[in-house]
Design a protein that fits this description.
Blueprint: H1 3-6, H2 14-33, H3 36-43, H4 47-56, H5 61-70, H6 74-79
Helix pairs in contact: 2-4, 3-4, 3-5
Length: 90
């Protein structure tokens, strides 16, 4: 995949999006918590489960919400589901 398409989520598979989001979360986590172990403890998740998420991007939806809450980013996710967008009728 070319570098210009890597940043365009529209052309990524769900696995690629998951890994991309996990990398973004890792960068944010490193600024505030330094280690995966400290952050996992902060959010009440096992170290192994969190480390696996950063590596693979795979986690339950509830686990994802726990991570987002731990980074104080819930509002950003909720905004993505606002219903203000134009509805296309088929």
């Amino acid at each position: 995949m070319s570098s210009d398409l890597k940043s365009n989520y529209e052309f990524m598979t769900s696995a690629e999006i998951s890994k991309s989001v996990a990398l973004k979360i890792k960068k944010i986590r490193k600024k505030r918590f330094k280690t995966q172990e400290l952050f996992a403890k902060h959010i009440g998740m096992s170290f192994g489960k969190y480390a696996r998420f950063e590596k693979s991007g795979q986690i339950s939806f509830q686990g994802f919400i726990d991570i987002i809450q731990g980074l104080d980013r819930v509002e950003e996710i909720v905004v993505a589901f606002n219903e203000d967008k134009e509805v296309i009728e088929w």
